[in-house]
Amino acid sequence: MFRFGTQFTVVSLVGALFGCGGGYSSMGPGNPPPPPPPGNTVQATNALVFTPATLQVSAGQSVTFSFGSVAHNIFFTAQAGAPANIPGNNASVSVNRVFAMQGNYTYTCQIHPQMHGTVVVQ
User: Fold this and answer.
1) Is the pLDDT of residue 48 over 80?
2) Structural domains for the chain
């Protein structure tokens, strides 16, 4: 048979365990997506997408292409004013490119051809 002190301790412990739930979790449905990358940054993600898929900048601005732990590269569609490609297998690095002229510059990861993005320069 439990004494009052033991029952109170068990009830308090159970209450404390159930009360610890309720914090923010990044798992499960209904949670917000991750925030967009800062400033003029395009992230090549492990999910094999460019985030954001379309980035708008002003002429003369630099864009940072940030590569996570999965290797990616960037090849721009051939057009006047397109910056230099970023060839190779780039992982865990960031590379900057300046977009000097107005236009829409599309690019693809040749390692993962389903990955496409666009930089819109105004």
Assistant:
1) yes
2) 39-122 (2.60.40.420)
